Amino acid sequence: MTATGASTAPGTTSVTAPTRHVEAAGARFAYRELGPRDGVPLVLLHHFTATIDDWDPRVLDGIAAERPVVVFDNRGVGGTRGRVPTTVEAMADDALAFIHAFRWTEVDLLGFSLGGFVAQVIASREPRLVRRLVLAGTGPAGFKGVGQFNRRLLTDSGQGLLTRSDPKPLLFFTRTRTGRAAAVDYMARIGERTSDRVNRTSLRAAARQLLAIARWGARSPMDLALIGQPTLVANGEDDRMLATRGSFELAHRIPNARLVIYPDAGHGGVFQHHDRFVPEVLGFLR
């Protein structure tokens, strides 16, 4: 394992944390560290097309006030070169290579959307490595509606492409007055970092991610009883991308799970309600 850059100083924020790199499994992974040096690190696994620049600063800085937080770009995304894997299981292989590069013996995981799929595989595959698990805006393999691209999803994504705008305001938030205001606020927050940003995800990489998502939805269900870690499942009440009922299914099938649903919120409910989600996560991780 080869890492570049000195250790991160305490007090580093989502805006100031430098982008560093570590080599593992033939890839040079881009990552950032926030928060204290001591304690079990919380490793974040992000959503479809996202990079380390797309995490909500209020979530990152809020959790990093107490806990070491690590965000990274998996193979072929953002600041990490290579070809994006076309299965969730292969994405989990790469995420594990990144984690093992630091020789951590224990981590907590927060997986959002596609990252939640990856987190489920990691937690079931290496139960001694994962202490606690947070699954946000995600769903189980083989569950109806997971990995299926409904008309609303395709329409909103198409509108973003046609207008050359980020589709997240349409996909992550409700169309109510509250939801529209939350979308504006979120987009402003993820733009707060103005330097040392990574490349956006390419269309080719996004297409490969879509294939992995479709395969996750089409595969046979995982035995979620294998996930014995305490698990926090969170979502908005009207998720347009991964139906909220998938979160209910996760909470039902994972033995030691707790479910939190945020009102008047969609796929990005944990960002819209960051003022509630961050204390929830910190309390859960304690």
TrEMBL record:
MF GO annotations: hydrolase activity
Keyword annotations of the record: Hydrolase
InterPro entries associated with the record: AB_hydrolase, AB_hydrolase_1, AB_hydrolase_fold
Coiled-coil region list: none
SUPFAM superfamilies registered for this protein in UniProt: alpha/beta-Hydrolases
A Pfam family reported for this protein in Swiss-Prot or TrEMBL: Abhydrolase_1
Domain AB hydrolase-1: 41-273
The protein's name in its UniProt record: Alpha/beta fold hydrolase
Organism: Nocardioides ginsengisoli
